[in-house]
Amino acid sequence: MADAVKIAVEARDPAKNKGTGSRVSRRLRAQGQIPAIIYGHKQDPLPISLARASVWDMIKKSTHLAELSVNGTTETVIVRDIQWDHLGKEIIHLDFARVSADESIETEVKLELRGTSPGVSEGGVLEQPVHAVEVTCRANAIPDSIRIDVSGLHLGQSIHVRDLILPEGVKVNAEPELTVVHVVSRTAQAETSTPGDGESLTQPEVIKPERREKDE
């Protein structure tokens, strides 16, 4: 688990920000700031803005936990939602949820494949139908990712949720039989990727936490 990222943020006063929420958001982004909201723990929501560079630094570090310095106090939070623009390139809003470092929470953690599967050289195709899972753990024990070693995965074999090696105190909120990665034959892969009449392709499944509505 990475240490909590410390970020200085600015509180936003809705009374001073004239115009619609989207207009204010565009104005902030033009200034190199990203609008966000802090909520939870039975406290009033707090609109804030933070530097774009700080947000990208947090994302690059795959950090879930952050300490936001605002109005002379420190808010311990986790990222609950990241809203991207229609091109998926720019972050336009973030949701932060207040947490206590030792409280049990639910959040999403990505699955990271490691190694080279021998099943590929055996003529198979490595597929990862699940790229992230919801976990329950303490806020200060959220793993950056759950690593999956595929170096022993042969053609026709699968890795399920029950096979995941988890840090102590981390529980995956998904069925143990759920397949997260497997090696299938090229024939089977072609059959599943080509829709028949009246059928359409489905996207890979991602187990996600429930999200709240954003509050500009």
Radius of gyration: 21 Å
Q: Percent of residues in helical segments?
A: 10-25%
CATH architecture of the largest domain: Beta Barrel
- What is the residue-averaged pLDDT? 85
Low-pLDDT parts are 198-216
Biggest sheet details: 7 strands, mixed
- Kindly report the name of the CATH homologous superfamily of the largest domain: Ribosomal Protein L25, Chain P
Overall shape: it is elongated
How many domains? Answer: 2
Summarize the structure in words.
- By secondary structure, the chain is mainly beta.
- It has two domains: 5-99, Ribosomal Protein L25, Chain P; 106-193, Ribosomal protein L25, C-terminal domain (RNA Polymerase Alpha Subunit, Chain A, domain 2, Beta Complex).
- It has four helices and 14 strands.
- The strands form three sheets. The chain has a seven-stranded mixed beta sheet. A four-stranded mixed beta sheet has the order 11-8-10-13, with no helix packed on it. The chain has a three-stranded antiparallel beta sheet with strand order 9-14-12.
- Strand 6 and strand 7 form a beta hairpin.
- The protein is elongated, with a radius of gyration of 21 Å.
- The model is unreliable at 198-216 (pLDDT under 50).
